Amino acid sequence: MDRDSSYEGFMRQLFDKEKLFEKPEPLKGVRVLEVCYVVLGPAACDYLAEFGAEVIKFEGQRGEQMRFVTPFAYFWKNLSPGLEEQNHNKYWVGMHLGHPKAKEIFLSLVKKSDVVVDNLMPGRMKEWGLSYPELKEINPRIIQLHVSGYGSWGPWTGRASYDAVAQSMGALSPITGFEGRGPIKSGVWIADWITGLMCAAAIMAALNYRERTGEGQFIDYSQVENVIRWLDWTWLYTSMTGRNRERSGNRDLAISPSSLFDCADGWVALAAFSKEEFRGLCAAMEQPELCDKYAEPLDRLQDENAREILDAVGRWAATKNVTEVEDLAGKHGFAASRVLEVKDVYHGRHFRERGAVQAYDDLLYGEMVEPCYGPRLSETPSRLKWSARPIGMDNEYVLTKILGFTQKQVRKLSDDGVVFKWNRQIPSQCPPPDWDGKQGVKYP
Amino acid sequence: MAEKKDTDKTGIEFIGSDLEEELFDDRNIVGIAINKEYARWAHRATNPDAIPGKPEALDDMVVIDASHGSFAGLFASSILAEMGAEVIRVEPPGGDLARQMTPYGMMIKDSGLGYLVEGRNKSHITLNIVAEEGRQYFKKLIKHADVLIETYKPGYLDGLGVGYRQLHELNPGLLHCAIHTYGQFGEESQKAANQPDYDIIDQARGVIMSITGEPDLDPEVPPQYKRPLRQGNWMGWYAGGAWAGFGILMAMFHKRKTGKGQFIDCSPPEGLLAIANYAMPYFHMSGRQMPRAGNYDYAVFPYTYVKCRDGYIFISGFTDPNWTALCGIINRADLREQFPTIRERLNPENQPKIQHEIEKFTTRYTSDEILQLITEYSKRPDKKGTVATGRLEAPLEVLQREHWSERRTFIRLEDPLYGEHLIQNSTFKTMSGTPGRIKWLCRPIGADNELIYQKFLGIGRGKLQQLKEKGIV
Fold it and tell me: Which of A2, A196, B7, B406 could in theory staple to A43 by disulfide, Cβ–Cβ 3.0 to 4.6 A?
């Protein structure tokens, strides 16, 4: 099929990377107060921050747990990669909201903010006098979102929950793994990330509604429920048949053929479900009789047939290189791709051209290269501005520029311990070892 | 001190304040909340029974979902449909391929199980856009829309004269969201020209699959299992759909303020690589890639699944105090001495050893017994730290749990055409002002042709019949 090459050119132009910072941000003017820690809550706010929301993040004196969670206990310029991954473009304030004076300051911010997010134990914000009715008193338009494993009410509210608990209790791990082998936890904290994303979507729906009506609202969100939601046909199948959904490795039980295959020089993911696509695959395999036998998608899904087809594809793929299979897929109209590792994405041009991976020069840490959240918006794209920062690094900026405190007032708050900065004895709370005391300071 | 006694007419005695607890036992609402009043308030604010009367956040939006063979497109439009948008599914006259994406080929009338789950709240029409006349109607429909969602090969719609360039002229406020593995441009776009988008491909290109699977560094794992592993669900498609939904809502927010439409290019693999933990920052900083860790974790351990007598449980105790607590619970002070700091515990060679030692204990007990031991320890005044645990629940077990039934996590819908079925509810149902909800399960192919063609295009039954005969509808 001929594709007008000017289409790709048109799209490149539409998303011209040179113009990135000339384009408006969709969430400009939206201020978010982040009372979150670890991955789930901060990720929800991170998605908004990369699209232009002004996110102010509060930390207690010990600092965010993720300052201490990092692969093989690795730190870089005092920065924990585990902290960096969900904290971009934010303003960092060291303040404990349980302190009465801190609460006063927080409420002054609420008056000028649009969204408050927490992923603390449900009820903690109420203990601090910061529940929705109290916030609404200060700012009738406020939108407040709380997210936790089990939500704010129900028989299990109050139970501790982590990402892996959600993967377990929501049955994501039980359905992930090779046939006949045990359940496998995701290689990433996936339940935290996907739940944070749905929280960001809920906040966007609330902002859309507020644009129409001026009304804010309270949003309660449960992480385990979110995992349950994402499990496609699992619940319908199990409730209909009385059987558990089984682990099936890389084979897709609802699409045939679809799996991961061994080639001579590596792995290839391959799928071909429609009649045309399967015909294309059989032509590439030079096995037209397979196509005659199993033309209908539904026939191919019968267990015995599916296994027979997967074997045939497997035997064929083993005689090819990955690149050959990918090229044949493009030629015959089915889907095939190698498995990408992070180095492929980092060094490859495709993702950088599209702005999915961005390089930027951080004021504290220098050159950084990281994924930038999608999707790609042509008029109001996302962008990376700066990295995670030391505790309280933006106290002065927030207190002075947003709340109008004088330098004297800020000093007093600091002397009284209401606001604080990093502890020099704890490196992962601090600026880089070679910091000159001025670089990266937003104000003064 | 004499106890105050109250007696009612029956002469039975009640003692003190226990009376209130007994009469108002709302444990099904307050659970083990740290603040019961908060839990009660939250329940009142987000009571599932109060949903039908409440407004919908997005009921002023019209969304055309012309996705084909893609649960990314379908999940994106489900998010919008749950919050009240009018979503119109446009399928070819023979129906969407996605209806056949179903386990073992199980069908309910004209719909597979996957499709039934994501049919919620959507009207369904048929239209043949391959035919020139069909495209005329498509363009007219687009003029009414705020959003178009499509998943065709990049350039396909453009080649037919109904791509973004053309539609944007007709409807400058249109939010055109295209979802495809490779996106609409980029070095790999040649491949994209003729390859369809599938979940396994999206997962394969999303980096997460390369670091998920049985642990590379554990010598007890047979070599044939040391390979990338997909998540069991359609994680690629659902992530792609969620990012698309999020992007559409941001673009819609911008449109409300400015009137401007735009193009949204959603590549599901990008949606996964962006949430691959610290993989890229760590690679940038250190030049190293993470190996597949299986159920281990090289940033935080123990944080793992262990075998117990009746299945598997999750157990964690990774900071020094929590590790001390865990060793206390399983009576293994020697492990505490052998692996005293996080550096020892994050050493990949040590993790299988630690895991097996923990399992020597946990395989003697059921998950309930272990939970009890952990809870008892947590109440001790001399406890050294906190150990978290959770059960790996099989789907059948999840369906039995009271918590999900109280929160209406699952609902049984009675559909006039498909029958009574259980599906997972909207997760936006606990919004106090504009809760998400499911109004109907699904619609057969073309079920809403009459209504939609009349309502939007002024085409009556007679003309519609002619169009059917011509294969346009």
Answer: A196
Q: How far is A406 from chain B (nearest CA, A)?
A: 34
pLDDT digit string, tens, across residues A399-427 = 999 999 999 999 999 999 999 999 999 99
Q: Classify residue A383 by its DSSP letter.
A: -
Q: What is the pLDDT of residues B138-193, one digit of tens each?
A: 999 999 999 999 999 999 999 999 999 999 999 999 999 999 999 999 999 877 78
Residue of A nearest to B46 (CA): A220
User: Can you give the pLDDT at residue B235?
Assistant: 98
Over residues B19-75, the pLDDT tens digits come to 555 557 899 999 999 999 999 999 999 999 999 999 999 999 999 999 999 999 999
CATH hierarchy code of domain B303-392: 3.30.1540.10
Asked if B211's CB is within 8 angstroms of A27's CB, the reply is: no
Q: Which two tokens stand for residue B105?
A: 């080929």
How is chain B split into domains, by residue range?
Answer: 62-274+443-469, 303-392
Task: Assess A20–B contact: CB distance below 8 Å, yes or no.
Answer: no
Domains: count for chain A: 2
Put simply, whether B346 touches A (Cβ < 8 Å) is: yes
pLDDT of residue B15: 47
Same domain assignment for residues A205 and A133:
yes
Given pLDDT bands bounded at 50, 70 and 90, which one contains residue B18? low
Suggest the residue from A116, A125, A141, A188 to mutate for an interface test with chain B (most B CBs closer than 10 A).
Answer: A188
Give the pLDDT band (50/70/90) at residue B5.
Answer: very low
What's the pLDDT at B1?
41
Of A183, A209, A245, the CB nearest to B395: A245
Q: Are residues A152 and A77 in the same domain?
A: yes
Q: Has residue B307 got a pLDDT over 50?
A: yes
CB B276 within 8 A of CB A193: no
Which class does domain B62-274+443-469 fall in?
alpha beta
pTM: 0.96
Does the predicted interface ipTM exceed a cut of 0.90?
yes
Residue whose tokens read 């000028």: A112
Q: Are residues A106 and A64 in the same domain?
A: yes
Report the alpha-carbon distance of residue A17 to residue A355 in Å, rounded.
Answer: 7
Cβ distance of A168 and B38 shorter than 8 Å: no
Q: Which of A340, A375, A402 is the last residue of a domain?
A: A340
CB contact under 8 A, B57 and A209: yes
Q: Count of alpha carbons within 13 Å of A297, Cβ hemisphere only?
A: 23
Q: Tell me the residues of chain A between 112 and 131 that have a Cβ less than 8 Å away from chain B.
A: 121-124, 126-127, 131
| Distance (Å) from the alpha carbon of A152 to chain B's nearest alpha carbon | 6
pLDDT value of residue A4: 55
Residues 252 to 281 of B: which have CB under 8 A from any A CB? Answer: 252-254, 256-257, 260, 262-267, 269-271, 273-281
Number of H helices and E strands in chain A, helices first, is 19, 12
Residue B251 phi, psi (nearest 5)? -65, -35
Using alpha carbons, list the distances in angstroms from residue A296 to A274, A276, A316, B128, B327.
8, 10, 21, 21, 57
Chain B: nearest CA to A412, how far in angstroms? 33
Q: Cβ–Cβ of A234/B290 closer than 8 Å?
A: no
Lowest mean pLDDT among B211-225, B272-286, B430-444: B211-225
> The CATH number of the domain where A114 resides is what?
3.40.50.10540
**B392-417 pLDDT tens trace:** 999 999 999 999 999 999 999 999 99
Cβ <8 Å between A371 and B188: no
Strand-pairing partners, residue A259, are A270
For residue B153, the 8-state DSSP code is P
Q: Is B411 within 8 Å of chain A by CB?
A: no
Q: CA–CA separation, B276 vs B239, rounded Å?
A: 12
When scoring A124, A157, A259 by the number of chain B Cβ atoms within 10 A, the one with the most, hence best to mutate, is A157
User: Cα separation of A410 and A416, whole Å?
Assistant: 10
